[in-house]
Design brief:
It is a single chain. With 95 residues, the chain is mainly alpha-helical. The protein is 35% helix and 4% strand. The protein contains five helices and two strands; from the N terminus they run αββαααα. Strand 1 and strand 2 form a beta hairpin. The termini are far apart. 22% of the residues are buried.
């Protein structure tokens, strides 16, 4: 199932990318041709159990970026468990 078919990320309409997942990029070019939902769920390190975005990476990134955050999978295990998804925390963790 493609990201467009699943409408998982909310950025596609009729097979056309209406905006980039990251806020830039070329209109009309889908950066993610296929969503591997089940594989992504297995690899997802998010411990926030009520999260309905698990495995939907493009949706997760878009959600966190809108909040000026990064997704938990970019942090260490301890950083992820803190639920502090701030860019400041990410930089401090990766110095």
């Amino acid at each position: 199932m493609s990201c467009t078919q699943a409408k998982a990320c909310g950025y596609h309409q009729n097979g056309i990318t209406t905006q980039s997942h990251w806020g830039g990029g070329k209109k009309g070019v889908s950066p993610m041709p296929e969503c591997h939902l089940e594989k992504n769920k297995v690899r997802c390190t998010c411990t926030y159990e009520p999260c309905d975005r698990k495995g939907r990476c493009c949706e997760c990134i878009a959600y966190h970026w809108k909040m000026k955050e990064l997704p938990g999978c970019l942090f260490s295990a301890g950083g992820e468990r803190s639920y502090d998804r701030s860019i400041r925390r990410f930089i401090a963790e990766n110095k």
